[in-house]
Design brief:
It is globular, with a radius of gyration of 23 Å. It folds into two domains: 4-71; 98-272, Intergrase catalytic core (hpI Integrase, Chain A). By secondary structure, the protein is mainly alpha-helical. It has twelve helices and three strands. The longest helix is centred in the N-terminal third of the chain and has 22 residues, at 4-25. Helix 1 (4-25) packs across helix 3 and helix 5 (115-130) runs antiparallel to helix 7 (168-184).
Length: 280
Amino acid sequence: RYSPHTLISYQTDLLDFFAFMEKTYGEIKLAEITHGFIRSWLAGLKETGLSSRSINRKISSLRSFFKYHLKRGEIAAVPTANIISPKISKRLPVFIKESETKALITSLNQAAEDWKSLNAKMLITLFYATGMRLSELIGLKEKQLDLGRSRIKVLGKGNKERVIPVSPEVVACIRDYQQWKRKEFATTEEVLLVTEKGKKLYPKYAYLLVNKHLAQASTLDKKSPHVLRHSFATHLMNNGADLNAVKELLGHASLAATQVYTHTTIEKLKDVYKKAHPKA
């Protein structure tokens, strides 16, 4: 039920932990590992400057690992039981202004001359219009498009499917891309977006392309595709969208994950209050 990215992260965490154990303590049986060993490993990670968020994920990886072996009867107790996860400071989502987004898409519409700039236009348009995650967009298949009814079926985390409506402008943009793709490549992948060689986009290709254009359009420090997902949600909230509706569009399992976007709405209300209230 986990994504390939999550599985790789968990595997890396476990390999790192056992490499530390072998280097520091030599060969130790699984049943002999105590919370003291784990705390020692975590302390070392903290000294390297690793964030609390990353440390928490590593603790989660170990918890899952030891719980699995407890169920199998290979250990008598879970050594992570006494490990307290560090507190994580709430990070507000980074987003670009609505005016900057419009200017960026307009400039991309004018500059789409070669295949790479056409891909940049498609990536930024679809990230912002749908709020999709990077893995969801590069894995989007032609059969998931329902352009006749102006909607896209997205397969999200845990293989949960959601439907995202799109505007006539986005539909036209997709149709144009499909037309160019058929002219350019005799046979293509079943995915919508392809490289100059007609192959499925890979994460780094999409990341670097979006990063390059966001750097030109914004002064933000963070310029990843996720910024466009944050912008999608923030702009919806700022324009009065219902929180539950935004949750469904983003594919969040919990409303708590979506509530972080209400901060911008509150900031906007403060601004309105300061400008309009006589006692402000």
